[in-house]
Amino acid sequence: MITARNITLSYGKRVLFDDVTISFTKGNCYGVIGANGAGKSTFLKILSGEIEPNKGTVEITPGERMAVLKQDHSAFNDRKVLETVMMGHSKMWQIMEERDAIYAKEDFSEADGLRAGELEADFGEMGGYTAESDAGALLSSLGVPDSQHELLLKDIPGNVRVRVLLAQALFGNPDILLLDEPTNDLDIETISWLENFLADYENIVLVVSHDRHFLDTVCTHVADVDRKKISIHTGNYSFWYESSKLAARQLSDKNKKVDEKRKELLEFIARFSANASKSRQATSRKKALEKLNFDEIVPSNRKYPGIIFRPDREVGNQVLKVEQLHADIDGRVLFRNVTFTVERNDKIAIFSKDQLAVNAFFEIISGNRPAGNGKVEWGTTITSTYLPNDNAAFFEKPMTLMDWLAQYVPANVEDADEQFLRGYLGKMLFSGDDVNKMTNVLSGGEKVRCMISRMMLQNPNVILLDEPTNHLDLESIQAFNENMIEFKGVVLMSSHDHTFMETVANRVIELTPNGIIDKLMTFDEYLSDERVHQQREEMYGVGV
Question: What is the rounded distance in angstroms from the CA atom of residue 336 to the CA atom of residue 325?
Fold first, then answer.
């Protein structure tokens, strides 16, 4: 068990935590959620001892070991990959170093022999004799090839370095595991492996993630960081979200009787308990939900942005025709022979093992990059808007949010006065004096919300999204996702948010160096279809 008692932390006048007392117990995985800046990552650092609170203590059951996913990707630059992983079990690594130093002595004494014997015994109890092979197997499971295991960390690509540090945290079956955004830079297959690993994990896990599919798959509980406090709720993220919405509706329905509300909540709990039986964490999650008291379900204090796209006109019969598109970078082929036609009811997940291929594709079809030898032809009825992966070019000149948004008011809009602009900014939670905030001090999430305000102004019937959830908090992601499901137009999108891709898309197009795979099916169907898997292997020329 790990317990935080009376934790208080403030930076100047800003109070992050005020007298927080909370415990985490074995066998549970806690998804730590909260708005951007609420203190999720900071709380994990308090638990790990990296940050000292102004007041309060952290207590861990004696003998239990904690492991933390390191965020400093250069900390182990001069260590070999295999060594870096084994260093995750710090006590075992210290024993190994002391033992090896004794054996390296030229004047090996009797006392040295006795000490070496003690160390060998401890080393064996900790699984030291299989540590190297265990670390190698873990690396391979995370997609780090054997050929890189003896390389220095600084000599491997950044996205592989992330996997090595994740392997370091997972190594040796720690009693308490703290993971801050563990799915960043991981591909779909590796995320799936990690989901299965954590779903079977029998110790304590605390994880911060913006990936709702990941949280739903691995979490038995949600730890909600809100208003300087942390509250624990039984169930995964979807259960927390749906139950808080239900509780909010019930709270506002003054005419509904108490026993009717109780019945509705109990039916809701039973439905989620049944769904839990289908998950990898079936036993623990189902038992937890069955024990849940309906009084524990309370409305959330969260504010959700109002993301609403209303097309000015319907999409015509001709939407987009793409012929023989080709893109490369530094002589490396990103994709070739990309030919397809977009239909009026399409919501397409654009997918690739190479994220640069996806970025290049969206830049080409949006007109920001030449098509080269290919052809991109939009229909005459189409009004499109684009959310790029990199929005830095839109914020180069410092100005107020009000002035910034005013630049993008369409020519056919009359009376775009201050109240009009405040309305669009207000939907994205910029209220009051926020509209006078300067663009050069915006956070990543604030910039994306500004971009969404700009896009809504266009009233488009086609929306292009390249990693739309980057930098957004869960509330914004949820609101964006729900509107894209309801949107009465065409969507072409790519996202690392599995739930976004699965719930919105009815068609999947995968870009490969040898052509495309184009399937009229959901994202989950695409990933689980054996024929698609075989086709992917053929297109990439390697196992996927």
Answer: 6
Same domain, 325 and 402: yes
Domain-located, residue 311: no
In this structure, the answer to whether residues 367 and 507 fall within a common structural domain is: yes
- Residues 59 and 171: their CA atoms lie apart, in Å, by 23
145-184 pLDDT, tens per residue?
Answer: 999 999 999 999 888 899 999 999 999 899 999 999 999 8
Give dist(CA 226, CA 473) in Å, integer. Answer: 13
Does some domain include residue 224? no
Q: Which of 216, 229, 309 is nearest to 39 (CA)?
A: 229
Residue the block writes with tokens 């108490």: 258
CA distance 318 to 486: 21
- Supply the mean pLDDT for the chain: 89
In the numeric block, the tokens 């669009």 are attached to 424
402 and 278, same domain (yes or no): no
pLDDT > 70 in the chain, percent = 94
Residues 156-160: contacts with CB within 8 Å, 24+ apart? 156/81, 158/73, 158/185, 159/185
**Could you tell me if 444 and 344 lie in one domain?**
yes
Helices 158-170 and 131-141: angle between axes, nearest 10 degrees: 130
